[in-house]
Amino acid sequence: MNPLTHLDAQGRASMVDVTSKPATEREARARAWVRMHPSTLQLIQDRGHPKGDVFAVARIAGIMAAKKTHELIPLCHPLLLSAIHVELQALPPDRVQITTCCRLNGATGVELEAMTAASVAALTIYDMCKAVDRGMLIEGLHLLSKQGGKSGVFIAGDAP
């Protein structure tokens, strides 16, 4: 049986056993965009949104989500992350770009944590702004890069 599988000896789903894997420095970066009406983006940039600072709330939501990824994704390992960064950038006329980075020294990667942070930050923007713009789109969630571990370095090619 391959020790890095989600199937146990009986063929049932189980968490991958990473006991024998060495701890290494690991990092993953992810990105997503929220497309919205230009007036919605302007409201966010002007910090005039009635619900408060959209970027500040989305950043905190992304950080919190990365820390709880194991509670959201079945069979995902609980990780002691050493760093979580969530950056939000207005891209006029109609988009917010969300870029995340998660790091740790451990036996398994942090790709899901970085992607979860980006997706929850995007959903938070949607939630805060839906009263003024129900037509927002969350787009292009993808892994930008990962490093560390046995599989080495991954850098995404041209993403959407």
UniProtKB/TrEMBL annotation:
<dbReference type="InterPro" id="IPR023045">
    <property type="entry name" value="MoaC"/>
</dbReference>
<feature type="binding site">
    <location>
        <begin position="75"/>
        <end position="77"/>
    </location>
    <ligand>
        <name>substrate</name>
    </ligand>
</feature>
<comment type="similarity">
    <text>Belongs to the MoaC family.</text>
</comment>
<feature type="domain" description="Molybdopterin cofactor biosynthesis C (MoaC)">
    <location>
        <begin position="15"/>
        <end position="149"/>
    </location>
</feature>
<dbReference type="InterPro" id="IPR050105">
    <property type="entry name" value="MoCo_biosynth_MoaA/MoaC"/>
</dbReference>
<comment type="function">
    <text>Catalyzes the conversion of (8S)-3',8-cyclo-7,8-dihydroguanosine 5'-triphosphate to cyclic pyranopterin monophosphate (cPMP).</text>
</comment>
<dbReference type="InterPro" id="IPR047594">
    <property type="entry name" value="MoaC_bact/euk"/>
</dbReference>
<dbReference type="GO" id="GO:0061799">
    <property type="term" value="F:cyclic pyranopterin monophosphate synthase activity"/>
</dbReference>
<dbReference type="Pfam" id="PF01967">
    <property type="entry name" value="MoaC"/>
</dbReference>
<dbReference type="InterPro" id="IPR036522">
    <property type="entry name" value="MoaC_sf"/>
</dbReference>
<protein>
    <recommendedName>
        <fullName>Cyclic pyranopterin monophosphate synthase</fullName>
        <ecNumber>4.6.1.17</ecNumber>
    </recommendedName>
</protein>
<keyword id="KW-0501">Molybdenum cofactor biosynthesis</keyword>
<feature type="active site">
    <location>
        <position position="127"/>
    </location>
</feature>
<dbReference type="GO" id="GO:0006777">
    <property type="term" value="P:Mo-molybdopterin cofactor biosynthetic process"/>
</dbReference>
<comment type="pathway">
    <text>Cofactor biosynthesis; molybdopterin biosynthesis.</text>
</comment>
<keyword id="KW-0456">Lyase</keyword>
<comment type="subunit">
    <text>Homohexamer; trimer of dimers.</text>
</comment>
<dbReference type="InterPro" id="IPR002820">
    <property type="entry name" value="Mopterin_CF_biosynth-C_dom"/>
</dbReference>
